[in-house]
Design brief:
By secondary structure, this protein is of the alpha/beta class. The chain has two domains: 2-215 and 404-457, Metallo-beta-lactamase, Chain A (4-Layer Sandwich); 220-398, Rossmann fold (3-Layer(aba) Sandwich). The chain has helices at 37-41, 64-67, 70-75, 86-116, 130-137, 220-237, 250-263, 277-288, 295-302, 319-324, 346-353, 372-377, 408-416, 430-442, and strands at 2-7, 16-21, 24-28, 56-58, 82-85, 140-144, 149-152, 155-161, 169-175, 178-182, 205-209, 240-244, 272-275, 313-315, 332-336, 360-363, 382-385, 388-391, 395-398, 422-426, 447-449, 455-457. The chain is globular and about 65 Å long. The two termini are 32 Å apart. The structure holds zinc ion.
């Protein structure tokens, strides 16, 4: 049972784990690195294996940082099956087509700029295009069903509910050498839409994500109440209420919450514009696979209603319609991507609205400090948006509790069920993993941080060659409230 990480070791993007089990070569997830340029450059690196020899890929869920390098795998020779749940297959199509579009668009923009300086040869080709995505999608095998086992060569694969986004699974792999569990991303048990994760079985080794391994989320009811108060105040200002939102899960949670708050009279029924074609497509998938969601959501569906469609919702499709919103008078909610305001239609709305004191910017997602959203949250009085300097006069509100990720209590509850499995920490910042490692070791568990390079024996109780330098273990910190993604 040897494993080599191809991403999300000591970082939170680019998830991918190359596993030898039962004489097979398997890859669990194949995500895109996102963020700083140096991190994104890693997308162009060769895989540490020959993609044409890989037996199969298994997906935990459809977020870009778990599926975004699949077309590269195809381009480099992989032609095997990609196993996933049905909703994951549907969302993967939406996510990869959007990713290809963004890459091709930013490539042509960069070429245009570079041509003016006579330097167009320096621009790197897009990672992949729409055709590569269609070829990749043809390899998807949506045969994973929660609680059922699929035989892949000598390995038995079982998908179980992870409760993170629609279709998200954790995977239990049984091979002749033993059992290993991959958590994928685990959900927040205070999620508005997803059913709680199920608990994993005893295992020999377990890989667990640690995004929020150092903190505790606030209860959802408090978050919803705060959201209602902020919206009611904002409506009184009479301007636009901008809600930057990620297309998958966050947008649907916000639409579901808005419908509830407006129908129960806690928030006035003002127009809501959903200005993100990708979020609109993802919302259709949530409706389609509504049976997967929490009982109270299924109840609404059964009564013939759409839980994601408040009565005042307008879905904006074309960019002309989006631009017309600049001239719309009166209070209205605009939901647009992307969540960190680093691109997408939200930037146009910010450019036109952020300087007005009647505007409200309601932040419901994690903002990385270097992003545009991060600078606004930190109190910048001016920001550059699409080459223009814009004053921040809008009221800025941050609502912290809509997280789709497990917090420390959730992670502990889940991992405790794995018996004496050796625990490998992935998908977290190093300081967060160190905190979580301290908590696990305090409970007598054997745990280590998955190294960025080289292959590890998953059952070894000690890091080969000792823990990497710099990874000292700190005593656990007080659980910090707040949450993001
Ligand atoms: Zn995720």
């Amino acid at each position: 049972m040897h494993l080599q990480s191809i991403g999300a070791a000591e970082t939170v993007t680019g998830s991918g784990h190359f596993l030898h089990l039962g004489g097979m070569e398997l890859l669990i997830d194949c995500g895109l690195f996102q963020g700083e340029d140096t991190l994104e450059a890693r997308n162009r690196e060769a895989f540490p294996f020959d993609p044409s020899r890989l037996d199969a890929v298994l997906l935990t869920h459809a977020h870009l940082d778990h599926v975004g390098r699949l077309p590269l795998l195809y381009k480099r020779g992989f032609r095997g099956p990609i196993y996933c749940t049905q909703p994951t297959a549907a969302l993967t199509e939406t996510v990869l087509l959007d990713s290809a579009r963004i890459q091709v668009e930013s490539y042509s923009r960069e070429v245009r700029w570079a041509r003016r300086s006579g330097d167009e040869k320096s621009v790197e080709e897009p990672l992949y295009d729409e055709e590569d995505v269609h070829n990749t999608l043809a390899l998807l095998r949506p045969q994973l069903v929660f609680g059922e086992t699929l035989q892949v060569g000598k390995v038995r694969v079982r998908a179980e509910r992870a409760g993170h986004i629609l279709g998200s699974a954790f995977l239990v792999l049984d091979g002749p050498e033993g059992r290993v569990v991959f958590s994928g991303d685990l959900g927040n048990r205070e999620s508005g839409l997803q059913q709680d994760f199920t608990l994993p079985p005893d295992a020999d080794a377990v890989l667990i994500e640690t995004t929020y391994g150092d903190r505790t989320h606030r209860p959802l009811a408090q978050t919803v109440q705060e959201f209602a108060q902020v919206l009611s105040q904002s409506v009184r200002l009479g301007g636009k209420i901008l809600i930057p939102s990620f297309a998958i899960e966050r947008t649907q949670v916000i639409l579901y919450t808005l419908k509830h708050l407006m129908e129960s009279g806690q928030v006035p029924r003002i127009p809501i514009f959903l200005d993100s074609p990708m979020a609109a497509r993802a919302t259709n998938e949530y409706f389609e696979y509504g049976d997967e969601l929490r009982p109270e959501v299924r109840e609404i569906l059964r009564s013939g209603e759409d839980p994601f469609r408040p009565s005042t919702l307008h879905v904006v499709t074309t960019s002309q319609e989006s631009q017309r919103l600049n001239r719309y008078d009166g209070a209205a909610i605009i939901l647009a991507g992307n969540g960190m305001m680093t691109g997408g239609r939200i930037q146009h709305h910010l450019k036109h609205q952020l300087w007005k004191p009647t505007t409200s910017l309601v932040i419901v997602s994690y903002q990385s400090p270097s992003s545009l959203g991060g600078r606004i949250v930190e109190g910048a009085d001016k920001v550059r948006i699409m080459g223009e300097e814009i004053a921040v006069r809008a009221k800025v509100h941050t609502i912290g509790g809509f997280s789709a990720h497990a917090d420390q209590d959730d992670l502990l509850a889940w991992v405790q069920a794995t018996g004496n499995a050796k625990i490998w920490l992935v998908h977290g910042e190093v300081n967060v993993m160190e905190t979580f490692l301290g908590v696990l070791e305090g409970q007598g568990r054997t745990a280590d941080i998955m190294p960025k390079e080289g292959s590890v024996d998953l059952q070894s109780t000690h890091f080969p060659g000792g823990r990497p330098p710099g990874l000292t273990v700190n005593p656990p910190r007080e659980g910090r409230a707040e949450a993001g993604e």
